[in-house]
């Protein structure tokens, strides 16, 4: 059933892309709405900063309008789109370091049960650890572990081999285990 849903999503994307490439702004807006949350989520996890993630998401949406003309449909649209998002994030990371780690909430933690406080602290430590990964390892970790993409999809998005994806994922996991060892 999930495969059928994915196929329907891909077919809807293909139809919308064709209309958008013909200049249909409404089809483009629908296409963007379908993918905007994931664009932002990937950017947020890559950059560990909500403001930078929003900037990247907006840049990608603007860039997408002109870039669609170059999309030939040889691969999946989502793979092509995520490559644009990741590349834009990597450019931002190269230009400036992240300003602060991502937190579940910008609000101060509420006083509550010890378990809730510990869970919030563990979550914040995990997000800081992911944010501290080198960009190449973070990209693989976010796309494969958090977004649930296959090794092949990640390899295609990052334009590397599956073996490179597996190696980077291994190094990312080792780094996270070492960084988060005090929480075990």
TrEMBL record:
Pfam families: Sigma70_r2, Sigma70_r4_2. Signal peptide: none annotated. GO terms for biological process: DNA-templated transcription initiation. GO terms for molecular function: DNA binding; sigma factor activity. Keywords: DNA-binding, Sigma factor, Transcription, Transcription regulation. Belongs to the sigma-70 factor family. ECF subfamily. PANTHER family: RNA POLYMERASE ECF-TYPE SIGMA FACTO, RNA POLYMERASE SIGMA FACTOR HI_1459-RELATED. This is Sigma-70 family RNA polymerase sigma factor. It comes from Pseudonocardia petroleophila.
């Amino acid at each position: 059933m999930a495969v059928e849903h994915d196929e329907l999503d891909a077919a809807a994307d293909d139809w919308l892309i064709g209309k958008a490439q013909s200049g249909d702004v409404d089809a483009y807006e629908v296409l963007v709405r379908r993918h905007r949350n994931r664009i932002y989520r990937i950017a947020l996890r890559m950059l560990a900063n909500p403001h930078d993630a929003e900037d990247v998401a907006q840049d990608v949406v603007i860039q997408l309008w002109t870039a669609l003309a170059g999309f030939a449909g040889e691969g999946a649209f989502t793979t092509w789109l995520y490559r644009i998002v990741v590349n834009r994030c990597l450019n931002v990371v190269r230009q400036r370091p992240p300003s602060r780690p991502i937190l579940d909430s910008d609000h101060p933690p509420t006083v509550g049960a010890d378990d809730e406080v510990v869970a919030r602290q563990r979550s914040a430590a995990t997000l800081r650890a992911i944010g501290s990964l080198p960009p190449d390892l973070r990209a693989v970790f976010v796309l494969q572990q958090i977004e649930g993409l296959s090794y092949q999809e990640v390899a295609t998005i990052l334009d590397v081999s599956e073996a490179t994806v597996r190696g980077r994922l291994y190094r990312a996991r080792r780094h996270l285990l070492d960084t988060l060892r005090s929480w075990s």
